[in-house]
Design a protein that fits this description.
Blueprint (H helix, E strand, L loop, with lengths): L5 E6 L15 E2 L2 E2 H10 L5 E4 L12 E4 L9 H15 L5 E6 L11
Length: 113
């Protein structure tokens, strides 16, 4: 499996009910949880797709695209994966695989892919 046929997808939706505030903007050290995830992924992937229905307050980037869920209603992470699959098809991209990552889990081991 080649890395260039895998799209990194960050699932940054959800209501953060149990967390009490937007967990994507929560800081760990001096950067947000989401930024920790993006920094780790950007070392391995050329393109990152973020699925969210909220304003993430991120700098624009050629390597990061942000789209909303394809079905409204905060229906869970599988809708985010479906949204990524539809985006790949609409853009006529050649990804064979999707690797999904939660936006609030910065300590994953990138070698799991």
């Amino acid at each position: 499996m080649k890395d260039n046929n895998i799209l990194a997808v960050v699932l940054a939706g959800g209501k953060s009910k149990r967390f009490g505030k937007d967990k994507n903007q929560a800081k760990l050290g001096n950067i947000t949880l989401l930024e920790h995830v993006l920094r780790k992924l950007s070392k391995r992937f050329e393109k990152i797709l973020i699925i969210t229905n909220q304003d993430l307050n991120l700098k624009k980037s050629q390597s990061i695209s942000i789209i909303p869920d394809c079905i409204e209603g905060n229906l869970g992470p599988l809708i985010g994966v479906l949204s990524a699959m539809k985006w790949i098809r609409e853009k006529k991209l050649n990804y064979e695989w999707i690797a999904s990552f939660p936006s609030d889990t910065p300590f994953f081991d990138i070698s799991i892919i």
